[in-house]
Design a protein that fits this description.
Two copies of one chain form a homodimer. By secondary structure, the first copy, chain A, is an alpha/beta fold. Chain A has helices at residues 9-17, 24-44, 48-64, 71-78, 81-92, 160-164, 200-207; strands spanning 128-136, 147-152, 172-176, 182-188, 193-194, 213-214, 217-223, 230-236, 255-256, 271-273, 276-277. Chain A is built from seven helices and eleven strands.
Chain lengths: 299, 299
């Protein structure tokens, strides 16, 4: 017979029911989740009407997701949870590598392949800048034929899918590094932007009097045979929100500043030089982290 | 300038961004939530692909909700979180009262009002049982004109909305206690049932090798002017799952057994006698806990 449960023994009862979980890692994760979730409720002495508000909020977060909007990731991002997962992943890497940053909800696996030196913009309506550098291993040796996926806002602060929906790609591309691991492409200065503020996460941000802005940045996902996938971003140092990113994605090492550079491939065009260091793949490594958020929603 | 964040300082950075939240209770809840969520990720060293699986799971939970199905509540229930919230609410009550149990996803505020002695079934296709007793205050004094909302499965184990959708109500009703707080109505033996197993929560239950069953029960929501609302259920002691309810709702004090009873209003019909004790309302009390789950989903 089930004993009467109090606020501590109910936690034990849940762990007992989950104790036969055959997948050891799932068991470990769910046990920790239950312990922390219950400790949270006890700590704040959560009231039924507050619980119900939380249920309604989480339900709305899921309902708000579409193939072009991932509100659940946005919630994770604005609670610093995504940044923490990135930090933990970086800590597990023994080899030196570039600091990671958030994947965010705007990555698309099917970005068009372009030639080195091409622009990621389909129409050039703002002053161009260029990115160049090298993808190197922990010893500084160039990684040939690495795949670099790049995506950012246009010069007005919008991702393609915020303007065109799913149908049209812009300001995103894939490049393959040359024999020496070098890359080079053209773009425009991205703009910082508000996260989507018209959903439940936006209401949370407003209720916390947060500005809800991300500083301007360009996303990079870099992969090569035999290496861990690197998900990162470069942040434009002149942005007013560089120190208060609402999703906690900025590291000092990722802050750049476009400037005239005599060594850049195209003379007379502002340039960002950045070398990315990627770590060798480990046995049972972290797997593909660049899963396409649009694939998470079937509805 | 933002400092580079490590797995501990990222938590501080989130708390700092939330520190201006004007609503003190929201601030307290969100601070605790962030601390526990981050501690969970650190404890299990959560990997990016596991995080992504969690994002996909939570998104699907929200997407699965409809006006007649509340998967987010089901998740909370199966993690013992709803039971814990109920226990915390009961602990805050100073006056003696009947143990609470889960509201569950099948409550409807608009249940039809019936006269004492009527049946809650629209069609009688199984042996009838009767419920009777008294709603009393902490001193054992009857509470006149208390409103009792009752709902349960039919004799085949289904709630009305699982068969008829939103359009038709069955096996649910409201009754008003008499001058002495007494109530009496007819019903059938409800059946235990599987929680909905065809969604993400069902997959979790299967992955944990849990049976996913609730023992047979009849829900009660009892309210009266000047009293705290009581949400509880009576559980049928003969059910094989009485000791392992998959949503942790059973208390010993709520276990009943229908039997022949010479004192029951209708002779020759199995009866359940149960007296409910309700607590006086407190200033700034818990509010209405019986919010209609169907109202949580606008989509």
């Amino acid at each position: 017979m089930q004993q009467d449960l109090d606020q501590f023994s109910v936690t034990e009862a849940v762990l007992e029911q989950m104790s036969k979980t055959p997948d050891a890692r799932l068991k470990q994760i769910m046990e920790s989740l239950v312990k922390h979730a219950h400790a949270f409720a006890r700590d704040v002495d959560l009231k039924p009407e507050e619980w119900l508000a939380g249920i309604a909020f989480l339900t709305e977060v899921g309902k708000t997701c579409t193939p072009s909007r991932q509100e659940t990731i946005l919630l994770s991002d604005t609670l610093g949870f995504s940044a923490l997962v990135n930090i933990l992943a970086a800590n597990r890497q023994q080899a030196k590598s570039t600091d990671p940053s958030l994947l965010g909800p705007f990555y698309r696996a099917a970005a068009p392949l372009k030639q080195l030196g091409e622009t990621i913009a389909t129409k050039i309506d703002a002053p161009e800048i260029q990115f160049y550098g090298q993808v190197v291993d922990a010893d500084g040796k160039g990684v040939p034929h690495a795949e670099i996926t790049v995506w950012q806002t246009d010069a007005h602060g919008y991702y393609d899918m915020q303007i065109h929906g799913e149908d049209e790609m812009d300001h995103r591309a894939k490049f393959i590094t040359d024999e020496n691991g070098r890359y080079h492409f053209r773009s425009v200065r991205p703009l910082g932007y508000y996260i989507p503020m018209d959903g439940p996460v936006g209401r949370m941000i407003n209720a916390q009097l947060r500005h809800g802005c991300r500083p301007a940045h360009t996303h990079f996902l870099i992969g090569a045979e035999g290496y861990e996938e690197l998900v990162t971003s470069l942040y434009f140092g002149y942005d007013q929100y560089i120190g208060t990113d609402t999703v906690f994605g900025v590291s000092k090492s990722l802050i750049i500043m476009p400037e005239m550079d005599a060594n850049a491939p195209i003379p007379g065009m502002e340039a960002v030089r950045y070398d990315f260091t990627i770590a060798p793949a480990r046995a049972g490594g972290s797997g593909r982290v660049g899963a396409d958020p649009s694939q998470l929603v079937k509805a």
